[in-house]
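Per-record layout

source: Marininema halotolerans
name: Dipeptide/tripeptide permease
length: 436
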Amino acid sequence: MRLRNWDRNLKIRLFGEGLLNILFWMFFPFLAVYFSDAFGKGLAGILLVVSNVFGVLTNLIGGWCADRFGRRRMMLIAAIGEGICFLLFAYANSPWLESPVLSFICFAALGITGTLYWPASHAMIADLVGPKERNEVFAAFYTAHNLAVVIGPIIGGFFFFNHRFGLLLAAGGAAFLLAFLIAYALRETVPLHEEKPSTNSRELGWKNVIVDQLKDYRVIAQDRNFLLFVVAGILIAQTFMQLDLVVAVYVTKAIPVQELFSFGIWHIKTGGAQFFGWLVALNGFLVVMLTVWINRWVTRFRVGNVFIASALLYGISMVLLGSSTALWVAIGAIVILTIAELVGVGLQESFVSELAPEHMRGQYFAAASLRFTIGRTFAPLAIPLAAWVGYTWMFVVLAGIACMGAWLYHLLFRRLERGKLLPTKPQVTNEVLKQA
């Protein structure tokens, strides 16, 4: 699906969100250092975990609100909230005030507004794009996000430490620009029959609203196919989330400086922290360059086979990383890990939209994000595990976890092929089984 054929909503969002993401990633990678210096490593770690827990809760609330009150309305509220948070964040790092406490409060609030925005954003794509093109559109947004991840830190390394106040003001301006575009250029896409409950919800007390949300999410929890998908995702997240965790520690401390290649009198040597930076850059470069192409290519295959292959490739990358401290082995492992990431990224979001009933898409996308939030909670345990059993066996354990995820995908698609679907989701049969 070419960009010129996209709905106007999606074109505007791609521009607005892309600009905001670049500004966000100009300071986000450096906040851990900033808060560690301000509060100490122990307290900073606890505070970041607590903010992540609040993010999980607000993400689920955001999904429910996107279904009840509309995608556009929730995106607008979240964008305005982000703009206000950025301005307060800028004030906390201004010539008039230097407050790490207020900075952390603003950072935590930004996480909350982001989790309110995300489910509505993905549900809008599912509303506007047909099943055949969804994975390609999701992949395009994923590429734009990762382009920001690559470009942002390169520029932000200078601006964050030298012009933090101006950087945060610019981010606030970008957030308000996005809010303006959402308010005046985007149309609502929520199916009409979803708007009726929103009127009744205003008449209910907050306790009844919470009960209503719990009932809706209980329906999702009883969807065994969706539960298999989420649990498999949590297991597999233990591998790809290690790039910033145990892989960083392993490469920095275990891979010595050695010759990468030579040409005549030219010799390039690297290792340790410098080499890890190169691996991260390689991962970002491959994501930006190959995401759309790979997502077009994988549509030739059955969705179930692609999910299983992705999980197994994650496992292979882990085994390869732990098998040798040679530079080219580590490079090969990162290439395989990146391919595993790319073959599933668009299809997984499209799969969630197919599995979800129309009137619960926002909540399904919110619940699907538990793959990452819960996965992010357990992923750091690999670091003490490495200290206990050694890097080689730690990577073997991670590979085994990825294989368990592949097995759960196998069970999921075998259930779908046998037609063991919940009666509340008959629409899954036509679209998902064609590709399963």
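summary: The first helix runs from residue 8 to 25. Residues 194-204, 421-436 have pLDDT under 50 and may be disordered.
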